[in-house]
Design a protein that fits this description.
The complex is a heterodimer of chains A (284) and B (127). Chain A contains 12 helices and no strands. By secondary structure, chain A is mainly α. Chain A starts with a helix and ends with a helix. The chains are: A mainly alpha (284), B alpha+beta (127). Chains A and B meet through helix 7, helix 8, helix 9, helix 11 and helix 12 of A and helix 2 and strand 5 of B.
């Protein structure tokens, strides 16, 4: 092997190591609030395994989508996205396992099922952070990203909806494990809940309106404010509601609950979810 | 009629997303509105407890109970007592939301099927 080849090898290895360090940093930043939440440790063993598995699979799909749509550059091949998502998962699992071990949340003497459950649920926000960290700060521009993506610098309508979904999922997931989410819905009267629905929509719309006209979107979203409201705000709130309901179901909050109770909980969780959907287009 | 021209160029996906969002939001508002207008405000929690099944496990008898809240008000810290002869077992359920059900278990050393088992809710705390 000649000297030049060695040098490029060193260079790409160093770049990869940098990327990996970045991913671990992102994983810990995004997962930290949940890593230090007691309810999240318990969820690992009382969550229904089937629902946890489905949630992990969906998280993987979201990671693949994030790899495609997030950041300033778009990847060209689904294989790259798949590999990116797998790497983010690996980083998420390892980061969660290390931190949980240091905290003494997992350790010897616990059942493998319990340890696996605790790590698995925490790996969701961690892998999310790992993916975003690499997307946001990893713009080396030389790792097989295509040029066509740069021409269409922002995702299309479907991509926008996806980003709103990812943002809603992340923030809803951050809030849902705590008992306060449920308690708040019990404390609220139906009128207060209706007020919260309207506030959620208003906030979402103001974000959509102020952010939505920055770039190319103005052309794709059409000119009418009415269309922006229906196509982005209401569609976004619908996504936030679906995501909230799904997260509540995953955490077993909807089991044995009556319809109006479920509506109340969905409203409460839909508030952070709507804000997550709104800022996703800013942050991601 | 410029509205119509605009509609013709609206992608299918945008229609689906907008209509879904609209329907979900309206459904939510209808559900909440119904509760706001028709729900009884001065209701008190009414928790009824019934025995679901009795299982023998590792020398213990587990009485699985279900607490059903027949009112629209949420009860928290619901204490449930099961008495069998002169022994009593209690359990506390964190929340029994209105019109909802929660499950819990009571342990007994003797077989509850042999004696007179009685289960009931002792009280609640307003959330």
């Amino acid at each position: 092997m000649n000297a030049a080849a060695n040098r490029t090898d060193d260079g790409s290895n160093r770049a990869y190591a940098r990327g990996l360090a970045r991913a671990f940093g992102g994983a810990i930043i995004f997962a930290l609030p949940l890593l230090m939440t007691m309810e999240m440790w318990f969820l690992g063993f009382y969550l229904e395994p089937g629902r946890l598995l489905l949630f992990l699979l969906l998280n993987f799909v979201v990671l693949v989508g994030l790899s495609r749509y997030a950041g300033f550059e778009h990847t060209s091949r689904w294989l790259d996205d798949l590999l990116d998502a797998l790497a983010a998962c690996a980083v998420g699992v390892i980061a969660a396992a290390i931190i949980l071990t240091l905290f003494g949340v997992i350790g010897p003497g616990m059942m493998p099922d319990e340890i696996a459950g605790k790590i698995a649920i925490q790996s969701v926000p961690a892998s999310f952070g790992a993916m975003l960290a690499n997307k946001q700060f990893g713009n080396d521009g030389s790792d097989g990203k295509d040029d066509a993506g740069e021409v269409e610098s922002r995702a299309g309508y479907g991509g926008q909806l996806f980003l709103m979904m990812a943002g809603a999922l992340f923030l809803a997931f951050n809030m849902a494990p705590t008992e306060e989410m449920i308690l708040i819905s019990y404390q609220m009267s139906p009128w207060q809940e209706i007020g919260l629905v309207l506030l959620s929509i208003l906030l979402l719309h103001s974000f959509v309106y102020s952010v939505g006209f920055g770039g190319q979107e103005e052309a794709s979203a059409g000119s009418g404010p009415l269309r922006t409201f229906f196509g982005y705000t209401l569609a976004g709130y619908g996504i936030a509601l679906i995501v909230s309901l799904y997260v509540l179901w995953t955490f077993g909050r909807t089991d044995g609950a009556e319809l109006s109770q479920i509506a109340g909980m969905t409203t409460v969780l839909g508030f952070p979810a709507a804000i997550g959907a709104a800022i996703a287009r800013l942050v991601i | 009629m410029s509205q119509n021209k605009q509609r013709a160029s609206t992608p299918m996906l945008e229609w689906i997303a907008a209509v879904t969002g609209l329907l979900l939001t309206l459904t939510l508002l209808v559900l909440l509105g119904k509760e706001a207008l028709l729900g009884q405000r001065d209701d008190v929690p009414a928790v009824e407890v019934r025995v679901e099944r009795i299982v023998e496990k590792e020398g213990l008898f587990v009485v699985e109970v279900e607490a059903v809240n027949r009112s629209g008000e949420t009860a928290s810290a619901v204490e449930i007592e099961g008495t069998l002869g002169d022994t009593a077992s209690t359990v506390t359920i964190d929340y029994v939301p209105g019109h909802s059900r929660r499950r819990a278990g009571l342990y007994f050393r003797e077989d509850p099927r042999a004696g007179q088992l009685d289960v009931r809710a002792l009280g609640y705390e307003a959330p």
